[in-house]
Design goal:
By secondary structure, this protein is of the alpha/beta class. The chain has helices spanning 34-43, 59-69, 78-85, 93-105, 118-149, 165-170, 176-205, 209-214, 222-232, 241-247, 272-285, 294-307, 309-330, 336-341, and strands spanning 2-8, 13-19, 24-30, 49-54, 72-76, 252-257, 260-266. It folds into three domains: 2-105, ATPase, nucleotide binding domain (Nucleotidyltransferase, domain 5); 118-205; 209-341, no CATH class. Strands 3-2-1-4-5 form a five-stranded mixed sheet.
Amino acid sequence: MIYVGMDISSKEFVIHAVNERKKVIFKGSILPTKKAIRELVADLGIETKIFVFEAGNQMKWLATYFKKLGEEIHIVHPNEVKWIAESGGKKTDQVDAKKLAELARADMLPRRVHVADGDARTLRELTAARESLLRKRVSLMNSLRGYLRQEGVRLPAKFFTSNDWQIKLIDMNLSTALEVIVANFMNTIENMVESEKAILHEITQIKNETIERIETIPGIGKLNARVLFGAIAEAERFDNSKCVANYGALSPTIYQSGDDLRMGSITRSGRSEIRRAMLQSAHAIARMKSTGAQPLLEFFRRIESKRGKKRALIALSRKLLTIVYAVWKSEEVYNPKFLKSA
């Protein structure tokens, strides 16, 4: 068995390969191309190999290509090997590659990062692109607010949600320079809105039976159902609902020392898009009056009376995620009777 640690960057891949006896088989760097990887695999010989690297923006094509070559890979989350990589006082690309290879040889690697494919991979990429556009659009809006404040103009909190915000900006009595800035910012914002709509259209076109079952859960609309499907990808890879809640960044922090045990705020260690989708759905349920949502609404109000609205929304978000997991695994649509009996 050959254990190959790889430090991935846009300019080069730093490689450190060792065998069972800890003998260095390969040490150096290669170009970040398919040809270079193919030649590396050939140079390492016919012995069984495992390639280890951290998750990053080149993970998709690397995983796909190694699979095509028939080679085993182990992708690790950067945060889970960070403390190991920095423990020796040195942090270079060569050191990182070497430590990954040594961890693989000692069977001490953290859990594998799941590489989604099919509809799940497509939805991950589309939702991430939409989120990126949304963040940039909000940043432009905030910048525009800043420019207007310099001339004493303060926009209301929900100014950009009104249908005629462009007309209101045009009608303002502004300096020549600010008129040019407003016109160009406004044009860019409008273009970004159209781009978001185009990506959202592509997202909602993806359909399958699992997504349709998730949509039967109260508060979860077309977009959030697809966000969840793309993020979770496969329900079978989770041992139980607690693992899903932890993956969705909705597990509480725990502090224990002796007999002292305290539960804190949510860890936020997980997929943030799941947490956002669940919180949006929880807010929607808090305003619902439908029969199907009643058990969830009763759960929310019970927690709210004891712990307050914010904690009740978090608890409802977590419960919703466990329901998504149950619906996914059982391959049955949402049924409020099951919640009442529970």
